[in-house]
Design brief:
- This protein has about 350 residues and is mostly helical.
- It contains 15 helices and no strands.
- It has one domain (about 1-305, about 325-340).
- Helix 1 packs across helix 4.
- Keywords: Cell membrane, Membrane, Transmembrane, Transmembrane helix.
């Protein structure tokens, strides 16, 4: 039990600063980008919106957790399911920071391959979402919307009816830390707990799980990477250490692709935002695509030039710990607030009033 709680805290420290950054960045995005622009470019159930979402998300320096508030903001403001899913995949796998770090460690060929494959995975998932998910009759708020029940949906309102207020710092905090975080605080907490359990259960010597059977190594790489929380940049030294330990470059690439693309927290957010069908498409594309592109690495790239110039042991200081405390405190506040709101609704409905 102690290992689980220790893993829970370590996971919160690793994620907290990115979650908070993503929430505040989403608050800025909400105030700067007009809803009609999002609806025009990302709102239609067409392949074009999926392409734009994939390319728009590729250079953004957001991990698989800080991308959740961004994606939630896009969805709330009118982005289609396909475009939202495409954005959720392309954004965390790469970013301008991880692109430069990948170039410094693995060279430009491997870097281009990583960026190219992330865009392909994102576009494939978005297109499948548009094909297999029923067409949306009207834009609706996401399932975990924190909008009051009697209030009109901001997505259903027309651009003429809604006047965007002037930019304000308080508006950034209100939208990011109250509206958005409140909308997925439960899935976030569940993902943290599940991720901590998985992290505590996985052996520390991961390289011993891989053997000479490359296919088995690929499957193990996906099974280990998918539920774990690891950012695009942070996954690089892990992948490099796996290669040094004797793991095939293809299996290491699978870790680089599937690890940042998803984790237990993102899985819960995808299901909450887009539904079970989207979650199945999301996981299937990441798993099958990562294995396919990883196998191609072993087939095509026989030799990789690796420059081990990055410190494998990253120290987390007081800033990261303070961010974790703040994030967990906000989650607790939202959960308690939600319980009181449910109690008030039940009381108003006559179920708890004498």
């Amino acid at each position: 039990m102690n290992l689980i709680w220790e893993a829970f805290w370590d996971l919160s420290v690793a994620m907290g600063i990115y979650i908070l950054f993503g929430l505040l960045a989403a608050g800025v995005l909400h105030q700067l980008i007009r809803e009609e622009w999002i609806q025009k470019h990302l709102g239609s159930d067409t392949h074009g919106s999926v392409y734009k979402a994939a390319l728009f998300g590729t250079p953004l320096p957001l991990c698989s957790c800080s991308v959740i508030p961004f994606a939630a903001s896009l969805r709330r403001n009118g982005a289609s399911k396909g475009a939202t899913l495409s954005f959720l995949i392309s954004t965390p796998i790469t970013g301008i920071d991880s692109i430069l770090a990948t170039f410094g460690m693995f060279g430009w060929v491997f870097t281009f391959y990583r960026v190219f494959t992330s865009v392909i995975l994102a576009i494939t998932a978005g297109m499948l979402m548009n094909i297999f998910d029923p067409k949306e009759v009207a834009k609706k708020g996401v399932a975990f919307s924190a909008t009051p029940p009697n209030a009109p949906s901001p997505i259903i309102q027309s651009a003429k009816e809604e006047k965007k207020p002037p930019f304000s710092v308080s508006g950034v905090f209100q939208y990011g830390l109250v509206t958005l975080l409140g909308s997925f605080s439960k899935p976030l907490l569940f993902g943290l707990l599940l991720g901590a359990f998985i992290t505590a259960a996985i052996p520390s010597n991961l390289q011993e799980l891989f053997n000479d059977n490359r296919i088995l190594g690929y499957l193990l790489a996906v099974a280990i990477a998918a539920p774990m929380y690891v950012c695009a940049t942070e996954s690089l030294p892990i992948a490099a250490s796996l290669i040094i330990a004797g793991v095939s470059p293809g299996a290491a690439f699978i870790f680089l692709s599937a690890g940042p693309a998803t984790n237990t927290v993102t899985m819960g957010a995808v299901k909450s935002m887009l539904g079970t069908r989207a979650l199945v498409i999301y996981l299937s594309v990441i798993a099958i695509g990562s294995i396919t592109f990883g196998a191609l690495v072993d087939i095509v790239f026989d030799t990789l030039s690796i420059n081990m110039g990055i410190n494998l042991h990253e120290h987390r200081g007081i800033v990261e710990e303070a961010a974790a405390v703040l994030m967990l405190g906000l989650i607790g506040w939202h959960l308690i607030r939600g319980l009181f709101q449910q109690k008030e609704k039940g009381c108003n409905g006559g179920s708890c009033c004498s």
